[in-house]
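Sequence and fold
=================
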Amino acid sequence: MNLKKNTALALALTMALGLTACSGGTGGSSSVSGSTSSSGDAASSGNTSSSVSSAASSTQTESDMQYVKDKGTLVVGMTEFAPMDYQDENGNWIGFDADLATAFAEYLGVEVVFQPIDWDSKVMELDGKTIDVVWNGMTLTDDVKASMECSNPYFSNAQVAVVPADKAADYQTVESLKDLTFAVEIGSAGKEQADTNGLTYTEVGDQATALLEVSSGTADAAIIDFLMAAAMTGEGTSYADLAPTVGLNSEEYGVGFRKGSDLAAELNIFFAEKYADGTMQTIAEQYNIADRLLEQ
C-alpha cells in the first residue's frame, strides 16, 4: 500500500472513531425502568453501540430499590436509642424503628441487617453504600432533608434537658440551664439545640452515653430526644435518678435514604398501608409511644 492510500485510511479511521465518541447516549431499550436520564444522556444521540457508554448510564440511573433487592439485604444504620432501636437480652435489635424496619425489609423481599454507626457520619455511610438507610428516630432538620431522600414524618418529638431528679425543680427554664455543662450526641438535634441556646456542652457517641454521663456525674445534664427521655428516665427505668425538664423545641422524625433514592417513596407507601391496617399503632403501643405517632 502506498503513502497516499495509508493517509486516506488513517483519515477514515479517525473520522469513524470521532463519530463513535460523540454518540454516547442510550436508547430506550437500555434505560432502567422508573429512572431518569442524566443531563449528559439527554444531550447525546440515541446510539447504543458503545457498551462503555451504556454501562456508565446504567450506573448513574440505577434504582436504589433494585440495588437493595439484588444484594438481598437492607442495611439499617442506627445507634442504640430506646424505644426506637435497642437490644434485648438476647442481643436482638428491637424497638419501634427496628420492628418497622424488619417489616419493611420483608415487604421488599430482603433480609434486614442492623449496623451501628457514628451518627455524625451517617450521610457518608449512606453515600458510601455501607448502609442503605438511616432509621433511628432521626429528626428532619434542614441539613438532613438537604443531604438525604427522606420519608414522610411519622413521629412528633422534642429535644429536652435531662438532669438529676433531685435537682429538676431548679431547672425549669432555658435561662436556668445556662450554667450547666451538657452531654450531647455528636451531630445530633440535641447538639443543635445546645448551640441555638448558647449552652456549654461536650459531644459523646450517642444519646445513651449522654444519659450515662449525667448519671455518673461527669456532666451536669444532657439534651436528648423526648421519646428516649420518657422511656429511659424516672421510676422503674434504667435511670430512675434522672428526670426530663425543659423542652427546647418541637420536631418530627423521618427515615433517610441516599439522595434521589426511590426507596423513600416506597417507604411512604408502606407507611400508609401499615397505618391504615393498624400495624404502626400496635407497634407504637407496645413501646408506649402511640400518642406521638403521626397519621400517614
Notes: The mean pLDDT is 84. The chain is about 40% helix and 20% strand.
